[in-house]
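User: Can you help me understand a structure? I only have the sequence.
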Amino acid sequence: KGMVPDKTIGRKALTRLHVYAGADYKQVAQKPEVYEF
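Assistant: Let's start by predicting it. Here is the structure, written out as tokens:
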């Protein structure tokens, strides 16, 4: 969130951002990448 712009475009980008805890997600057309921290 800290790297997203603070203005209107940043708020709109945050509403479109999806973060999932595991491999279960409802967007079947998307191919998300898994990041290990």
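Now, to help you interpret it: The mean pLDDT is 73. Helices lie at 8-16. Let me know which part you'd like to focus on.
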